[in-house]
Amino acid sequence: MVTAVAERAGEAMDSEIIRGSWQAPDRFGELYHRYATVLYGYACQRVGTAEAEDLVAETFLAAFAQRHRYDLKRSSAKPWLFGILTNKIARHSRSERIHYRGYARSWQAPVVDGVDERIVEQVTARAQRARLATALCRLSRADRSVLLLVAWGQLSYDEVAEAMSIPVGTVRSRLNRARRKVREALDDGTDYNGDDS
Amino acid sequence: MDEMRTLTELGADLHPEHGPSAQLRARALRIAPQTGRRSWRPVLAVAATVTILAVGTAIVVNGFDGPRADGGTAHAGSVRGKAPATIVETKPVAFTVRTNADGSVTFTATDLVDAAAATQALNAAGVAGRVVNLPDESCPIDSPNGEDLALGPYLPDKAEVGEGQDSSDNVTVRSTSYPPGGGLLLMVQAFDQTGVGVVVLPYTDVHDIPTCLRLGLW
């Protein structure tokens, strides 16, 4: 985790940076250095590269504007920033679904000669990912966000709870529900072309 | 097959090959007040002010095609298609200022606005302050080489924001959002893909509000 790295390196905690930015606004740029790339990567995964930069820019603009209200007891700003970004992404759920369906449609089962097991495994795995991309569209926004914050954002349950302002128990229940639905979609085994709307 | 492992693999497929562009940093971080403004007041005054102020703040993400037709108890300003008066680059004017039944004023932008007209409408609705576009390329640069921008304040310390950042698609403010003699700065920023953002910052002295803003250097 970025904050853990900062601690080891003797660098300022995120909360210290934010506190410092109250009087020295330029310090907020240190948070950008720490989190811009990971937030951008996550935004790309969810909505694609075309919109990711806009959302990350909006996220930092909003974070800066809200920095005086940041709870300084929270040493890591990662959940806070992911929470803002998640809210931004929620406004673009249509783009997100189009993004996933585009991925699903981009895959077509190749014609494979012979029975090379490695190729068969690769084709099967790619088919599963296409199926999963389509399945994500079926999840509610809240369930999808919890699932992807854990899987792609690498947030802990506690961090997801903080990011989404929900109890940890709700995180667990949403995650369980999302995983079950995704698992059912994968077990279904039918071919997907992304047209499940 | 384990769904989480497949999800991780899918995430790897969707992850970008490259990081964000160099331009993102400037867009995400840098707002430098420019000429036409007064010097910032002492920090002590700032600290006292910050604890008092709370105002609704919102990023307005493009959700409207034009001025609202449903109006309100009063429609203080609705201008569209008029040439901007204070910015060099011509932009369509797209904002509404609506006075609500409870006395609050809702400002909605769908693009960079005619800042002078928007400010006039805002003031006419009873809210002191100014509307500016970000960036405004006609905004003069203080220093010939721009270095002062890097050293100068990002935002005035006396500016503070409140609730509503992510929960509303328009900005609703009140004359009680700032102290007597103060006012609001409404910054309108256009994004390539996701529409328009408006951030509200209250000032304790209306004369301290910048007349224009531009993306600075860092």
Give the strand content of chain B.
15-25%
End-to-end distance of chain A: 37 Å
The most extensive interface between chains reads:
A-B, 53 and 45 residues
What's the end-to-end separation of chain B, in Å? 48 Å
Radius of gyration of chain B: 19 Å
Please count the helical segments of chain B: 5
Structural class of chain A: mainly alpha
Portion in beta strands of chain A: under 5%
SSE string of chain A:
HHHHHHHHHH
Measured on Cα atoms, how large is the radius of gyration of chain A?
A: 19 Å
Main beta-sheet strand count, sense and barrel state of chain A: none
Shape of chain A: elongated
N-to-C series of helices and strands of chain B: HHEHEEEHEHEEEE
Give an overview of the whole structure:
The complex is a heterodimer of chains A (about 200) and B (about 220). Chain A is mainly α and about 200 residues long. Helices cover about 70% and strands about 0% of the residues of chain A. In chain A, helix 3 runs antiparallel to helix 4 and helix 8 crosses helix 10. The longest helix of chain A is centred in the middle third of the chain and has 22 residues, at about 115-140. Chain A is elongated. Chain B has about 220 residues and is α+β, with helices and mostly antiparallel strands. Helix content of chain B is about 20%, strand content about 20%. Chain B is built from five helices and nine strands, in the order ααβαβββαβαββββ. Chain B has helices at about 5-15, 20-30, 45-50, 115-125, 145-150; strands spanning about 30-35, 75-80, 95-100, 105-110, 130-135, 170-175, 185-190, 195-205, 215. In chain B, the strands form three sheets. Chain B has a four-stranded antiparallel β-sheet, with helices on one face. In chain B, strands 5-7-8 form a three-stranded mixed β-sheet. Chain B has a two-stranded antiparallel sheet with strand order 1-9. Chains A and B meet through helix 3, helix 4, helix 5, helix 7 and helix 8 of A and helix 1, helix 2 and strand 8 of B.
